[in-house]
Design a protein that fits this description.
single chain; 204 residues; mainly alpha; 8 helices; globular; membrane; Exopolysaccharide biosynthesis protein
Length: 204
């Protein structure tokens, strides 16, 4: 079944931070907190973790996002996280922060996201968005300064837009990802110019 064929799923209300013992969640447990798994829901959680400044998480999750893109293109169900990745613990501090962020995203979706420009979320566009997810995963993987923020935000908007059939959110996803691509090209040009100047200095 194509991801677009799944009806929009409501985000479940996460565990309330501060209630009882502080949570120390694994990635698998975090996904279980969000209710029934779907490809957009898995993408949302993984992308949100990439946006948050948790050292090394973007590099760790980029491969899982790329695998999700393959399934998205084929209309396959979301893959289970590898055992080692699914068992990765966020720790109490980041568990609370991620749960709060998911609560904020839930409130944002209810208020601002709705079906519009729905042709952009048609099943026929799934292959394009799968390629887009893979491209954002590649940028997240690269060790760029703050390189996770724009591609991660692009994927968050993509997941929310897909679930709500909100084409405007998908356009914003493309704009955010376009900014990530522009930043990558600028950094590449800067690195090339630096190497060229260094080579000229060595020849003198």
């Amino acid at each position: 079944m194509n991801p677009a064929d799944d009806p929009p799923r409501p985000l479940s209300t996460p565990h309330a931070p501060g209630a009882g013992e502080p949570p120390d969640l694994t990635l698998d447990e975090l996904l279980q907190h969000q209710g029934p798994a779907s490809s957009p829901m898995l993408l949302l959680v993984l992308a949100l973790l990439c946006v948050l400044p948790v050292a090394g998480v973007g590099t760790l999750l980029s491969g899982a996002i790329a695998l999700l893109a393959l399934g998205w293109a084929r209309g396959a169900p979301p893959p289970a996280l590898p055992r080692r990745l699914g068992g990765f613990r966020l720790g109490p501090v980041w568990s609370r922060r991620v749960l709060r962020a998911l609560q904020a995203v839930h409130a944002l979706r209810q208020r601002w996201f709705r079906a519009r420009l729905s042709l952009l979320a048609h099943p026929a566009t799934a292959l394009f968005w799968a390629a887009w997810i893979a491209l954002m995963a590649l940028i997240i993987f690269l060790p760029l300064p703050l390189g996770n923020v724009l591609p991660g935000l692009s994927l968050v908007l993509l997941a929310l837009g897909w679930m709500a059939r909100d084409g405007l959110a998908l356009l914003l996803s493309a704009a955010s990802g376009g900014g990530a691509i522009a930043m990558l090209l600028w950094l590449g040009d800067l690195a090339w110019a630096t190497l060229a100047n260094l080579g000229q200095g060595l020849r003198v």
